[in-house]
Each structure stands twice: as C-alpha cells, then as structure tokens.
Amino acid sequence: IPLLERLGRMPLASAQGRPGGTAAPTFGAGWAADPWLSACLAFVEMKRSGSQDRALSNEDRIMMTIVERVDFLRGVEMFSLIRTEYLAKIAAVAKERALAAGEALFEQETPPEAIYFVLDGEIRATRDGEEAWVARRGQAVGALPILDRKPTPVSARAVGAVRVLFVDDEVFNDLMLDNPALPLGIVRYLAGEVRRRLEDVTG
Fold this sequence. Notes:
- With about 200 residues, the chain is an alpha+beta fold.
- It has 8 helices and 6 strands, in the order αααααβββββαβαα.
C-alpha cells in the first residue's frame, strides 16, 4: 500500500521531554513492509506531536481512518484467524456507507455486490417479507453470496440510521485468494451462525 510505505520512514519524536531523557525508539525499513505497524507509527506520531488538533492532510486522515478500521475489524468474528497487519490491507480497500432508516442495503435475489460490516445501528434481513435476522455492530452481512456466488437470499434494510463498512465483491474475492485464512474464517463464522440459529429453533 503506497500510502503506508511513506510512513515507514517517519522518525518518532526526539528524546526531549521523555522521562530520564531516554531516546525514542527508531524504526527502519521493516515498518514500511508492515502496513499495520506503519499505521500505528503514524497514529502514535500524530498523537505525540499534537497534530490531531491541527488541520490534517488527506493522507493523515486516511491513515488515522485505517487504524480505526483495523481496531474495528479485529472484533469481527470472521476475522479471528487473520493477522492484524493483514487486516490493514482490508481496512485500506474498505469503504463506508451511511443509510437512512428503512433504506435498502440490498434486495432479495440480487447479485452480490459487496460484503458489509455493521459499524453503527442495526440491519434487518427479511425473506419473502418475514424477518430472518438482525445484524448489529461488528456483525457481517452478505457473506454467504460472496462465497457461493449466488443471488442474495434475503433483503437487508436499515433499522434507524446505520453506518456500514464494506468491501466490493471482486476486491474481497482477491483478498480471499491472497490469504487462505480469510475464507476459512468465513466458513467457521457461517457454521457458527447456523449452529446458533438451530439452537434458537430447538430451544
């Protein structure tokens, strides 16, 4: 990710003002090769310099957004097998979308366009007009069609104001090919969802 590579060359603050005058740690080229660590370095440096209180450049804002997205993605169940630095790659290609109350995220029997993760609010899924499930913060929506390449079996609409993070279908498929732990994590997640719903039915 070119934007992150630039941050691998950023020095941390000097020893001035540090307890005992100890020098701040230095970071070499290894940071540039690790997107998540680069993002953390940029975040820490901006906090330390107080630049978050000044006007940030577009690149700085993007970097802080990536750090925040990775922190969110670490709590998504299907990503439990994914190394944190790889989550930075997902965060870098993800997009955000805001939905008004009642707005459709997608309709039943339409081709999959993306996989979605609820940032704020709730998404209600219905099948043939009947409620199927409700997704809340940290839960995925649209994972099954991404895997089986078939139309979405449900419609999904916002319950109140909602924000979602999403990755386009083709981009997510490229990510799955690049990291075998990703589809394995999705399969485990879906298996867990099936088990939970069976337990709900049986009581």
